[in-house]
Write a structure and sequence with these properties.
Order of helices and strands: HHHHEEHHHEEEHHHEEEH
Helix content: 40-55%
InterPro entries: GAF-like_dom_sf (IPR029016), HTH_MetabolicPath_Reg (IPR050707), Tscrpt_reg_IclR_C (IPR014757), Tscrpt_reg_IclR_N (IPR005471), WH-like_DNA-bd_sf (IPR036388), WH_DNA-bd_sf (IPR036390)
Number of domains: 2
Number of strands: 8
CATH topology of the largest domain: Beta-Lactamase
Keywords: DNA-binding, Transcription, Transcription regulation
Strand order of the largest sheet: 5-4-3-8-7-6
Protein name: IclR family transcriptional regulator
Strand content: 15-25%
Pfam families: HTH_IclR, IclR_C
Structural class: alpha+beta
CATH architecture of the largest domain: 2-Layer Sandwich
Distance between the termini: 46 Å
């Protein structure tokens, strides 16, 4: 690491050892074959003793690992997991933007990405036509049971997690069409799993319909929903079926793009 970088880190109030450790991680991440201690020290402009001390500390925490057969250091399992978690959460909106824009242009409707939060489902990315009406803007949260995005996540959760969530949350009525009985919701979730996509037919907001499909992570667990919403005048019940199949295919592409594994 250059003196300029170190000086800048000190001016920003950063801890020098953390700046150096992240510099090492960046260096290792850029070389899939790993680096020797000498190469790490040279690239980061650190003394060998300093580089070795930081590497052994990060090795104990599993952020890096040492291959004794090649004497090379590389990113460890914890570092990989941390990067994967980032890619599959906050960065979903950015990674999914090309797919969202393509769907928006083809269908002329608002397309969103949402993830589960402790109280419901939060929208983390969106592509929408100019002057279109939207049911939920990025950053807003809706109930799981009254939104297509929430229902498709619930439908693909592990049964124990789904039952635990439903036992803690009331199925509040948003409109006259909201599903408020747990047995009825259970039947709806079963139909969603079989169909491959979920539909919100004015259950959250009168005059608006939505359809959503699941996106899975690298362990085959549902991670997000890809959805399309619009007015009842534009999204007829007949059109929803075709859009649902289109979204399901797009969600599969997004699953592949984030290194996910489709559920069996």
């Amino acid at each position: 690491m250059s003196e300029t970088c170190e000086d800048g880190g000190e001016r920003l109030g950063q801890v020098q050892s953390l700046v150096r450790a992240f510099s090492i991680l960046d260096t290792l991440a850029a070389d899939e074959n790993g680096l020797t201690l000498t190469e790490v020290a040279k690239t980061t402009r650190l003394p060998r003793s300093t580089a070795h001390r930081l590497l052994t500390t990060m090795n104990a925490l599993r952020y890096v690992e040492f291959d004794t057969t090649t004497n090379r250091w590389m990113i460890g399992v914890q570092g990989f997991s941390l990067g994967s978690a980032f890619v599959q959460s906050r960065d979903l909106g950015r990674l999914g933007r090309p797919i969202m824009r393509s769907l928006m242009i083809d269908a002329g409707e608002t397309v969103s990405i949402a993830v589960a939060d402790p109280s419901g489902v939060t929208y983390v990315g969106q592509a929408r036509p100019v002057n279109s009406r939207i049911a939920a803007a990025p950053g807003s949260s809706l109930p799981m049971h009254a939104s297509a995005s929430g229902k498709v996540l619930l439908a693909h959760w592990d049964e124990l997690d789904r039952n635990a969530f439903l036992s803690r949350h009331e199925l509040g009525r948003r409109t006259s069409l909201t599903i408020t009985e747990k047995n009825a919701l259970a039947s709806e979730l079963s139909a969603i799993r079989a169909r491959g996509y979920a539909i919100d037919n004015q259950e959250n907001l009168l005059g608006m319909r939505c359809v959503a499909a699941p996106v899975f992570d690298r362990k085959g667990r549902v991670r997000a929903s890809l959805s399309m919403s619009g007015s009842v005048a534009r999204l007829s019940e007949q059109r929803l079926a075709g859009l649902g199949r289109t979204l399901a295919l797009a969600a599969q592409r997004m699953t592949h793009d984030i290194g996910g594994l489709l559920a069996a």
